[in-house]
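Friendly challenge for the regulars: who can give me the structure tokens for this chain first? No prize, just bragging rights.
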Amino acid sequence: MECPDLEVLTDDDLARRQRARHELMGPAVRALLELSQRGELTTAHVELSAHTLGVHVRTVWRNLARARLGEPLRRGRGRFEITDDIRTLLAYHRGNVKAVHRELVHTAPRRQTRPDTR
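First reply, four minutes later:
Bragging rights claimed.
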């Protein structure tokens, strides 16, 4: 079976492939984790999984490490919401998103990067 040319694929096809890749990553990592626990995991297993899923080998190793630590395979992201205040800032800066971002960063409360040692 010949691999379809990527130029022929539509955005829907690419999105469908990406969703399928994400859905199959979990079962693949669980199977690899089981092999690892039995001491039977080889690099060939990881390479085959990566090739089958269409991802880089390093991605599979990284997900396997996350699974060993009990972490989720995919990090969740919070959604950015444009509030009325941000709309006002956009209007004030005449649609200049960079200026709005600069102002938001400047006025945001500072996060402490190191634990307080006082």
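The chain has a mean pLDDT of 85. The radius of gyration is 22 Å. Your move, everyone else.
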